[in-house]
Design brief:
Layout lengths: L4 E6 L4 E6 L5 E8 L7 E4 L5 E2 L7 H14 L9 E6 L10 E2 L2 H9 L8 H14 L5 E5 L9 H4 L5 H7 L8 H15 L8 E6 L3 E7 L2 E5 L21 H7 L5 H10 L2 H6 L5 H9 L3 H21 L8 E5 H6 L1 H9 L10 H5 L18 E3 L4 H16 L3
Parallel strand pairs: 1-6, 6-8, 9-12, 12-13
Antiparallel strand pairs: 1-2, 2-3, 3-4, 4-5, 7-8, 9-10, 10-11
Helix pairs in contact: 1-3, 10-11, 11-13
């Protein structure tokens, strides 16, 4: 058994794999897409050749093909020392990453009602690797676990208490692995310990969420029972008036259709009518496409409003942190968002923001900003690899 860690992230139509060495340096990564539909394909990053798959390959088939490709290319010589899995929803059962056994598999199944599009496919990846590597310790790392420190005032909805008691209706939060990494990295960049660091972490990509981290732990976050609540996202609406469902029912639009549109045809895509990709929208806006500019404006204003709301959960603020594909790469989004926060004392340096913080160890605020503003690349795979190594080492009787 070689001293490597395999990280598995199974989605509804994709699988991402990453392989790390014993010092948690990434050795390779791979991706399979369009699974369970025509045109399934896979590739190893940096390799121009695609990996042969059946046209409608399943997650299990794609995973086995990717592992075989790692071995054929001598990236993974034998079997890994540990395997880490991203699992979207752990409900209230899991407050931290755990080694996988039959009881954990059963508990993840029990949470499937809270994430029907995610947990079943996460489980398919777990079952596939348990078959491929039956003797390797495997860990489940939950998107929701970091947010299990939320106080009741932050996670309860103002609904009948029995809904929470009987059905688990509450705010859970997501992107926890990314926000946990932000807590650690921000502390390092600021020269503090994680336990004394308080930041607002904005994870911005096709999915977006924001978290108030006080003294290293999550105390408020924007996503709720599902990943639909909160910020404007690529295709998700974020917050809407619940009365919308009754209003649209009166127009002949059923609940299933509303749910589909809110998740798949709203957000940046719905507002612009063009794209859910922020880069494309910025280009369109620069060429005078007004709906694209409107989409950017709504996205940034909603984000700024949530940043202000997160302040209520903090005693002090060490930094505002931007991460994720948009957060790391869009100087325009960062500038427009922070322009709404001048009353709170946030100000950016135009030059540092333009260079994404690369010339200033992540810092992009101006000299007269009340608070530091950081750009930190997220690394959820690294967090999962570290957790899998930690748990596998703890389980090793030697």
């Amino acid at each position: 058994m070689e001293d490597t860690v395999l990280v598995v992230n199974c989605g509804s139509s994709s699988i991402k794999l990453a392989l790390f060495d014993g010092k948690h340096r990434k050795l390779a990564s791979a991706l399979a897409e369009r699974l369970n539909q025509n045109g399934a394909f896979a590739r190893i990053d940096g390799d121009q050749q695609t990996i042969p798959l059946k046209p409608d390959a399943s997650q299990d088939e794609a995973l086995e093909a990717l592992v075989t490709a790692f071995r054929d290319r001598k990236v993974m010589a034998s079997v890994p020392a540990a395997i880490g899995h991203r699992v979207v929803h752990g409900g209230e059962t899991f407050r931290e990453a755990v080694l996988i056994d039959e009881g954990v598999v059963s508990a993840i199944e029990d949470c499937a009602g809270l994430a029907p599009l995610h947990n079943p496919v996460n489980l398919s990846g777990i079952r596939a690797t348990l078959t491929l590597f039956p003797d390797v310790p495997q860990a489940a790392v939950f998107d929701t676990a970091f947010h299990q420190t939320l106080p009741k005032r932050a996670f309860l909805y103002a609904l009948p208490e029995s809904w929470y008691r009987n059905w688990g209706v509450r705010r859970y939060g997501f992107h926890g692995t990314s926000h946990a990494f932000m807590a650690l990295e921000a502390a390092r960049l600021l020269g503090k310990t994680q336990a004394t660091t308080s930041v607002i972490s904005a994870h911005l990509g096709n999915g977006c969420s924001i978290t108030a981290i006080r003294d290293g732990i999550s105390v408020d976050t924007s996503m709720g029972l599902t990943p639909l609540e909160g910020l404007v996202m690529g295709t998700r609406s974020g917050d809407v008036d619940p009365g919308l469902f009754d209003f649209l029912r009166g127009k002949g639009v059923g609940a299933e259709e509303v749910h589909r549109v809110l998740n798949q045809e709203s957000g940046l895509l719905g507002l612009s009518g063009q794209s859910n990709d922020m880069r494309s929208l910025c280009e369109l806006a620069d060429h005078g496409h007004e709906p694209s500019q409107t989409a950017i404006d709504v996205f940034c204003f909603r984000l700024a409003r949530y940043i202000g709301a997160m302040m209520a959960s903090l005693r002090h603020l060490d930094a505002l942190v931007f991460t994720g594909g948009i957060g790391e790469n869009s100087a325009r989004v960062r500038q427009e968002t922070v322009s709404h926060l001048r009353l709170m004392g946030f100000k950016l340096s135009e030059e540092l923001n333009k260079h994404h913080g690369e010339i200033s160890d992540g810092r992009i605020e101006s000299a007269d900003s009340r608070f530091p503003v950081l750009v930190i690349p997220t690394n959820e795979e690294l967090v999962i690899a570290r957790e899998a190594s930690r748990l596998a080492g703890a389980a090793d009787p030697s």
